[in-house]
Every structure is written in C-alpha cells, then in structure tokens.
Amino acid sequence: MRLRTVLTADSESRAEVGVDGRWHRTDSADVGALLTTSDWRDRVYSDRLEPAAFERSAPVVTAPRKILCCGHNYRAHIAEMDRPEPAFPTLFAKFADTLTTWDAEIALPGPAEAVGLDWEAELAVVVGATLRHADRETAQAGIAGYTVANDFSVRAWQRRTSQWLQGKTFDATTPLGPELVTPDEVDPSTGLRIVCRVNGVQEQIGSTDDLLFDPAALLSYISEFTALRPGDLVLTGTPGGVGTAAEPPRFLRPGDIVETEIEGIGLLRNHIVR
Q1: 135-161, pLDDT tens digit by residue?
Q2: Distance from C-alpha of 36 to C-alpha of 39, rounded to nearest angstrom
Q3: What is the pLDDT of residue 101?
Q4: Residues near 243 by Cβ (< 8 Å), separated by ≥ 6?
Q5: Are 43 and 34 in contact (CB under 8 A)?
Q6: pLDDT tens across 2-41, in order?
Q7: Are 23 and 17 in contact (CB under 8 A)?
Q8: 252-265, pLDDT tens digit by residue?
Q9: What is the per-residue DSSP string for 27-74?
C-alpha cells in the first residue's frame, strides 16, 4: 500500500491512499493524521473511498511532532569521513519547518561558495504506533512505512560549532516523499539501492543493508528516551559520496538539479535556486 499527502486547489492538505494502482481520497488532513487512527488500515479496505486525481504535492507528513535523524550510519559514509564506527546512534533533531515537497525548489541561504550546500540522500521511516521503551520486535511492528528524504545540509553553518543543529534545520531544505510505502511492499534489510544524482551525475550510491543501525534498532533506541508517536519521522543517515568528502569538496550551485531515489520507494527531484 502507498500513502501520500496532496494540497487541494484551496491550499488545504489531504491524505490519499493508493490501492491497486489507484489513488483514493480520505478525510484526514495528511498521512500523519491518518496514522493516528488506530484502525486506519481496516478503514482503508472497508470504507468506500472516492477516486482522487493528483493536485499539488506536499510532504508525506506535514506536521510531525518529532523528527529525529541519525548521522554516521552507513558504513561507507563513516569510512569516507574517516570516523570510527559509533557504539550508539549519533542523533540530532529537525523541525517541521525544514520539510518541503519532493519537487520543491531548494533556495541557497547565501552565496554558494560561502554556505556549502551539500546533498544527503536518506531513507526516512514514518512511525505508525506509539513507541516507548520498545524492543526491536515492537519497534519493527510500529513502522508505518518508508519514504525518501534528502537532508540538504548547510556545511558552513554546521561547522560553526561541534553541534550540527544549525546546519541541518534551515527552513524548507528537507524534501520528503513522494509517497509512503508500507513494509509489506519494501524491506530495507534486503538491500534497497539508494542513489543521489546531481545534474544527471551519480554522486551517491549505496544500499540500505549497509546501515549500521537499521530502522527497528533506531526506533527502539530512540523510544528509550522519548516517546515516538504516529506520524513522527526518523531519518536513517546517508551513504558515501557527499560533497564535503570530495577532494576538493564540491557543493551545490544555483541551477543544479538533485535527484534522490530509493529502489521500490520513489524519487525526489529538486532544483537549486538562489
């Protein structure tokens, strides 16, 4: 099953459900709101859903309570950054204002040479149940599905201090979508291909079986210190090939087109603008 959020002609958001290749309207404002209904799967199959035509794109989840992200989580990326493998997940938070659509323009927050805008293709996990002190099995069962994200990072700001927050939370720099795909359709443990292309050139290529801490491990760990609830997001990290690790480092410029794709889940296509 696939879920998405769209904007209607009057700029209101609405969750839609893809069943057998057709999209159907729901009465939920977005996918996050739909997931708060404990019997949402039963409703999808039992309700008489209205057919829907695509209108305008929106992030899969528009207002999560929490967005947690894991850095240094692909073994290849850890190696290219010359870091040891961490014993525990390296976590940081984002805000809902960072989210934008799968086809959005990403605005440089200053001169390209000064800000160092970098690409980071990521598998995003959408939480589908309340998780607190969850073991691995419970955490796995609490995954509503997976989607695609790019954690565009402003490296100049990220490096101002030892804390990453300011470089990771510029508004409208984290495209998310285009759809949520449920775990019965995709399984990251099988090794889904994850790719980032800049102007058609493949910069990142990896596989989700290279994750040091997989989605269930991350959700279980996070749930030990804070509750996760339906509609919350966990970004799982980026594979090797980021611009900051190149020799010399390479960053995005106005006019660049960034495509982020995960096998079986979907594709983001974002235009970098001034």
Answers
A1: 999 999 999 999 999 999 999 999 999
A2: 9
A3: 97
A4: 116, 118, 119, 203, 249, 250, 251, 252
A5: no
A6: 999 999 878 889 999 998 888 988 889 999 999 998 788 7
A7: yes
A8: 999 999 999 999 99
A9: SSSSHHHHHTSTTHHHHHHHS-PPB----EE--SSSS-S-EEEEES-B
**DSSP track, 65-101:** S-EEEEES-BHHHHHHTT-PPPSS-EEEEE-GGGEE-
Q: What is the pLDDT of residues 211-253, one digit of tens each?
A: 999 999 999 999 999 999 999 999 999 999 999 999 999 999 9
H/E stretch holding 226: none
User: In the prediction, which pLDDT does 10 show?
Assistant: 80
The number of residues in the chain equals 274
- The structure's pTM equals 0.95
Please state, in angstroms and rounded to a whole number, the distance separating the CA atoms of residues 48 and 68: 35
Closest listed residue to residue 264, CA positions, set 198, 209, 188, 206 = 188
Report cis status (omega within 30 of 0) of the bond before 248.
yes
Q: What's the start-to-end Cα distance of the chain, in Å?
A: 37
Q: In the chain, at which residue ranges do the beta strands (DSSP E only) sit?
A: 2-7, 13-19, 22-25, 56-57, 67-71, 90-94, 99-100, 105-107, 117-118, 121-127, 143-150, 153-154, 174-181, 193-198, 201-207, 233-235, 257-262, 266-273
